Amino acid sequence: MNLEILTPEHKVYSGKVYGIQLPGTNGSFEILEKHAPLIASLGKGRMKVLKDKSMNNTETYDISAGFVEVLNDNVSVLIEDATAID
């Protein structure tokens, strides 16, 4: 699936991924390929980008509030701020 992560200042990530784990306002959830259409609000917490099925190739970010939209295997994450975690 295609993933785009954006803040008001810059593009944090853009590319093909296996999935993404997000901190929803009502609890954490995961989006994988062929997910049903969705719009959800995000809270402050950790976001993990899963680049492949092995789950060994990931990127992790601390994020602030925002939203996620899933439509036709395209995921857009709109957040106020993101800090990469090494």
Topology as H/E string?
EEEEEEEEEE
pLDDT averaged residue by residue: 94
User: What would you give as the CATH superfamily?
Assistant: F0F1 ATP synthase delta/epsilon subunit, N-terminal
* Rounded Rg: 12 Å
Distance between the termini: 24 Å
Largest sheet: 5 strands, mixed
Q: Compute the number of structural domains.
A: 1
CATH topology (level 3) name: ATP Synthase, domain 1
Structure at a glance:
With 86 residues, the chain is mostly beta strands. The chain is built from no helices and ten strands.
What does this structure look like?
With 86 residues, the chain is mainly β. The chain has a single domain (2-85), classed as F0F1 ATP synthase delta/epsilon subunit, N-terminal (ATP Synthase, domain 1, Sandwich), CATH 2.60.15. The chain is built from no helices and 10 strands. It has strands spanning 2-6, 11-16, 19-24, 27-32, 38-42, 45-50, 58-63, 66-71, 74-79, 82-85. Strands 2-1-9-8-5 form a 5-stranded mixed sheet, with no helix packed on it. Belongs to the ATPase epsilon chain family.
Task: Offer a few descriptive terms.
86 residues; mainly beta; ATP Synthase, domain 1; five-stranded antiparallel sheet; 10 strands; 0% helix
Give the arrangement of secondary structure elements:
Blueprint: E1 2-6, E2 11-16, E3 19-24, E4 27-32, E5 38-42, E6 45-50, E7 58-63, E8 66-71, E9 74-79, E10 82-85
Subcellular location: Endomembrane system
Function: Produces ATP from ADP in the presence of a proton gradient across the membrane.
InterPro entries: ATP_synth_F1_dsu/esu, ATP_synth_F1_dsu/esu_N, ATPsynth_dsu/esu_N
